[in-house]
Model the fold of this input.
Amino acid sequence: MPNHPSVIATRAPRRRLHSVEAAAEILGIGRSTTYEEIRLGRLRTVRRGRRRLVPAEYIDDYVELLKAETSVAESRA
Done:
């Protein structure tokens, strides 16, 4: 019953911007590691005033980067 009106009305929209801490939690890595990946340019962010935010698609991009690095490393082994 995913298209039932009561289900649609109560479904929360997917958050599109995440704090660095929330992105770290989503990725399952530590806060310090997340900031290091940002510093290295591997995890991109946007600025909103003084806040640094991670768009959901940048989290997806980072996961794809990790997957690509893993497949390259495995092909060399």
